[in-house]
Specification:
The complex is a heterodimer of chains A (661) and B (308).
Chain A: H1 2-21, H2 26-54, E1 58-61, E2 72-75, H3 77-100, H4 111-129, H5 133-151, H6 158-189, H7 194-199, H8 204-222, H9 231-237, H10 240-250, H11 252-262, H12 270-293, H13 297-324, H14 328-363, H15 379-392, H16 399-417, H17 420-452, H18 459-462, H19 469-487, H20 489-504, H21 511-514, H22 517-542, E3 547-550, H23 568-576, H24 580-583, E4 585-590, E5 601-606, H25 609-627, H26 637-660
Antiparallel strand pairs in A: 1-2, 4-5
Chain B: H1 3-15, H2 17-32, H3 41-50, E1 54-57, H4 62-81, H5 96-117, H6 121-149, H7 157-162, H8 174-190, H9 209-212, H10 218-243, H11 251-275, H12 284-304
The chains are: A mainly alpha (661), B mainly alpha (308).
Chain lengths: 661, 308
């Protein structure tokens, strides 16, 4: 099956190159690239799925040495699971993109966007099968660069270029930490091979250092708070199918990296779990609060990625707490919940970004305060967006509930049975998940309600049109998968269980952990039956009776206008008021005054304290400190020649001393 | 579960909820020195509404029509998960407390979406407040659930109720008092009772739950009314299980204990409504955060005492 995966990666690259060659005709490039990407994603995904279900573990070493490293790839449960996620999300995103990009034909050259998209998918696939540090880093770098070029698709716009630069810098800062981690690991094990990493016995101090480097390095890609600041800029800047891919799977490569790195570090101490729970709580709550404050639909979704990465971190944290305390059940529940949330988030966030893309394309704006009533003009998009919204809030009977349920159950067991210090860590996950869930519900009621329900708030919205066929099919497929995992969690956990078992280093999935999943199917079935029965009852009751249409009850006011509807800002206000400091909102307002107010104004600017109060001042300090070094940079050639001479002399003297010893 | 227990469970779940509303109304009437509506008036109200036609706003879509249906279905489903007259339930499973809480959240999601579907600023305001207060209530609910679940070792109602130490309740386990008080606060918030919301108010600007359903009428309003009664019933039943020793075996004793406990709790809610004024809206989050802190102290007490 590894061969099949490699072949589909070759097809991805090949179709990408072919699309780039066909740059004269955007239509042709789009057709070639999309066809290649869909075929290879389906084939590669199927191959990975078969390997995962069969429990295959294959290695392939090519005799071809890349400098320092080796071309060593392998497919195990963890790799196969992430491959399934990558190919599944990319197939849906490509299908959507093949329709979405059509609007740009004739306005812009599409070949680069198509080629870089395929390259990005290929790099992610290479990343998860790489078993050599250097190969891993090369794939990582290709992934970062390809996504940079996709983010800057509309490079003539100032804000897009800015977002791209922030992304590029953040991504390379993160890579520096990963480099350091690999360098330390290879120093301890003597090679860059992953097998050597796992068999090397790291001293505790070194393992702790590597863990922290991995958290910072991979966390900056994943979007852990406060390394997330690139994310809310980059996701909205990219075309929507790219946002779906980036948010759906690319940031999960950070999670994959972290999980893979954990396998190199021997048995983890319990405080690692506490660290990840803390990161999860902060990322989750901060992410959802910022999301609640946003009026830009795609920015709102981008902040929700941070929230969901927080939930995944909570799951890994609970898993680590269980593993380090030797509790198989808690370890399994935490890891499998985190992994399933990776897949689930890829599905529903991909779906939501596609919906957001359709909406912003149809209305020409991303500002939800100017939308409303879009349900009537775009019912399919609205329905699938509703499914995605319910799923991302973790509500039954959809997929988000299943993964959050697994993490909850792990946390409850951890709070009950671990030693006190670690039990408290697990316990904190419970109210945090509850608060995140409550806030996420508020946020998505707001997003869905203000965008699709009510009346159009602007003229442009009234003329909005439904998405094309390919885009609709992609969204419907995504929604169906969300429902499928939600009502059949046993099947979905079958995909994550092998990887979770290997991460937790146990023999098999504990039966008490996966047994109750059948009950979730039962509850979901019961809920569907109840809804259907009540809907039929309502129909039967209303049959033959008078059902009239009227205007919305305006409390006796008979001439309401769409502008009188509740706005997204007002909706979120009661929730955000207590957290005003966290979201850093600055309000400029002129209140209406007097009997005949002439002027009133309300303007709100949202900041991100992680960047403004923490990262930017810190960076400025570093830059100021480094500015001292400018003394040696005078711009005169003679001086530089002197430097070279001094360096040579010093090296010579050093060599002589070394030889003398 | 035995057939009798299942039958009693269903009879209680589907039959009793409106009675609790009647008891609350009677209690309030007694405090006000009125004779009040008959005890069974809520049943008659629901029956009357089921017999009517409906008027829909032209702005609305199917989401508006789905709101009452989904919210009623979710509370019914949650009622099938929660043990009522015994410590078992028809749909209970290991880890069911989470499903219980999230089903309630699903119903709320659809009621709020239905409110926004009308495009009315009043209903938007109600939905916004409901979203805010329920989000603040959520940690209190889960911390209280953690207090009763930690001694059982799992997030499961049946195990948690079986692990309740009746002989020494309140003396050696003050944590349960914290859980009960926090859950009572959650109960008042979830069911829009005073001091969070006033179900009797008729000023749209001050309402929360009632204003969200301004546009519903006929069978839809009947579903909403019945659904909120069921929600009051199940949240009260959860509290009764912590406060009173409902026999794990169930049967008629269980039915009597649960029924008596529920009526007692409804009287208590009526007393609170008669004796207290509604909180100013900005105060409500403080009230709910207070409940979370109380439950948090309860959890801390568990760890302070060591393994329960």
């Amino acid at each position: 099956m590894l061969t099949a995966v490699l072949l589909s990666m070759a097809l991805l690259c090949g179709s990408g190159v072919a699309a780039a060659c066909a740059s004269r005709s955007s239509r042709l490039a789009l057709a070639i690239g999309s066809a290649g990407s869909i075929i290879s994603s389906v084939a590669g995904g199927a191959a990975a799925l078969i390997a995962l279900l069969r429990g295959e573990s294959i290695q392939l070493r090519a005799g071809w040495a890349i400098p320092v490293g080796e071309l060593h790839v392998a497919l195990d449960a963890l790799s196969a699971f992430f491959l399934v996620c990558v190919f599944l999300v990319s197939a849906l995103a490509t299908l959507y993109g093949s329709g979405y990009l059509k609007a740009y034909i004739g306005k812009r050259r599409l070949a680069p966007a198509v080629a870089f998209f395929n390259l990005l998918v290929c790099a992610m696939a290479a990343l998860v099968i790489a078993r050599d540090g250097i190969l891993f880093l090369i794939s990582w770098e290709v992934m970062s660069l390809a996504s940079f070029f996709l983010v800057t698709f509309e490079s003539e716009r100032e804000d897009v270029r800015r977002a791209g630069m922030t992304y590029l810098i953040a991504s390379h800062l993160g890579t520096a930490f990963i480099f350091l981690m690999f360098a330390l690991l290879s120093r301890s094990s003597g090679a860059y091979d992953f097998n050597a990493f796992s068999s090397a016995q790291l001293p505790a101090g070194m393992a702790n250092l590597c863990f922290m480097l991995a958290v910072v390095g991979f966390g900056s890609k994943a979007g852990f708070w406060p390394m997330h600041i690139w994310l809310p800029d980059a996701h909205p800047a990219a075309p929507s199918h790219v946002s779906a891919l980036m948010s759906g799977v690319m940031i999960k490569m950070g999670i994959y990296g972290l999980l893979r790195a954990l396998t190199f570090m021997g048995s983890p101490p319990a405080w690692w779990g506490t660290v990840l729970v803390a990161i999860g709580v902060i990322s989750g709550v901060a992410g959802v609060l910022h999301a609640l404050a946003q009026h830009d639909l795609k920015r709102l979704l981008a902040y929700h990625s941070i929230e969901n990465i927080g939930i995944i971190a909570l799951g890994i944290g609970v898993g680590l707490l269980g593993q380090s305390n030797g509790d198989r059940s808690i370890a399994f529940l935490g890891y499998t919940g985190a992994l399933l949330h990776v897949l689930n988030h890829g599905l529903f966030k991909g779906l939501l970004f596609k919906g957001a893309g359709t909406v912003s394309h149809a209305t020409g704006t991303r500002d939800i305060e100017r939308m409303g009533g879009l349900y009537r003009s775009m019912p399919t998009t609205a329905m699938t967006f509703l499914v995605g919204s319910v799923a991302i809030c973790g509500l039954p009977p959809l997929n988000g509930f299943v993964s959050e349920w697994l993490i909850y159950v792990g946390a409850f067991q951890g709070a009950a049975s671990l030693p006190t210090a670690w039990a408290v860590s697990a316990l904190i996950a419970i109210p945090a998940l509850a608060l995140i869930g409550g806030l996420a519900s508020a946020c998505f009621v707001k997003a869905f309600g203000v965008v699709f329900l009510g009346q159009p708030r602007a003229e442009t919205v009234s003329s909005a049109q439904e998405a094309g066929k390919a885009m609709r099919v992609a969204m419907i497929l995504g929604a169906l998968l969300c429902v499928l995992i939600g009502v059949w969690p046993g099947g979905a956990v079958g995909l994550t269980a092998p990887a979770a078992v290997s991460l937790a280093r146990i023999q098999a999935a504990p039966s008490d952990a996966i047994g109750p999943l059948v009950a979730i199917t039962r509850v979901a079935t019961c809920l569907v039956i109840l809804v259907a029965a009540l809907a039929l009852l309502r129909l039967a009751l209303l049959r033959g009776r008078k059902v009239a249409q009227a205007v919305t009850w305006g409390c006796a006011y008979s001439a309401p206008t769409p502008r009188m509807q509740y706005t997204a800002g007002s909706f979120a206000e009661p929730l955000l008021a207590p957290f005003a400091r966290v979201i850093h909102a600055q309000v400029h307002r002129i209140d209406p005054a007097g009997f005949f107010p002439t002027k009133a104004r309300f303007e709100e600017h949202l900041g991100d304290p992680a960047g403004e109060r923490f990262l930017i001042p810190a960076t400025r300090r570093v830059v100021q400190a480094l500015a001292q070094l400018r003394v040696i940079q005078q711009g005169r050639l003679q001086l530089y020649l002197v430097y070279i001479a001094i360096t040579l002399v010093v090296l010579l003297i050093w060599q002589i001393i070394e030889a003398g010893r | 579960m035995k057939a009798l227990d299942i039958a009693l469970h269903l009879v209680f779940l589907f039959g009793m909820p409106p009675l609790l509303l009647g008891v609350i109304h009677k209690t309030k009437a007694w405090f006000a020195g009125r004779s009040g509506p008959p005890l069974f008036q809520p049943y008659l109200d629901i029956w009357k509404l089921l017999g009517k036609g409906a008027v829909y706003s032209r702005t609305t879509t199917w989401v508006f029509r789905a709101g009452p249906i989904v919210s009623l279905a979710t509370v019914m489903c949650a009622g099938l998960i929660l043990p009522l007259i015994s410590s078992a339930s028809p749909l209970g499973f290991a880890g069911d407390v989470i499903a219980f809480a999230y089903l309630l959240a699903l119903g709320r999601f659809f009621i709020m979406a239905a409110a926004l579907d009308t495009g009315s600023s009043f209903e938007g305001m109600g939905a916004s407040r409901e979203a805010a207060f329920s989000a603040f209530a959520e940690p209190a609910l889960f911390l209280s659930l953690a207090i009763i679940c930690i001694p059982a070792g799992t997030g499961t109602f049946a195990a948690a109720f079986n692990a309740l130490p009746w002989a020494t309740w309140g003396v050696s386990h003050p944590t349960y008092i914290a859980a009960a008080l926090a859950l009572f606060a959650v109960l008042l918030a979830e069911n829009s009772r005073i001091p969070i919301d006033d179900p009797n108010t008729h000023l749209e600007l001050t309402m929360i739950h009632e204003v969200m359903v301004l546009d519903h009428g006929g069978p839809d309003l009947a579903f909403v009314l019945y659904g909120s009664a069921v929600k009051l019933f199940i949240t009260s039943a959860l509290l009764v299980h912590i406060l009173l020793p409902v026999p794990p075996a169930g049967g008629w004793t269980g039915a009597v204990v649960l029924g008596g406990g529920l009526v007692g709790l409804a009287v208590l809610v009526g007393v609170v409504e008669s004796a207290m004024a509604r909180l100013r809206l900005p105060r409500v989050p403080q009230f709910l955060v207070g409940a979370s802190v109380l439950a948090g102290i309860g959890v801390a007490a568990i760890f302070y005492r060591g393994a329960p």
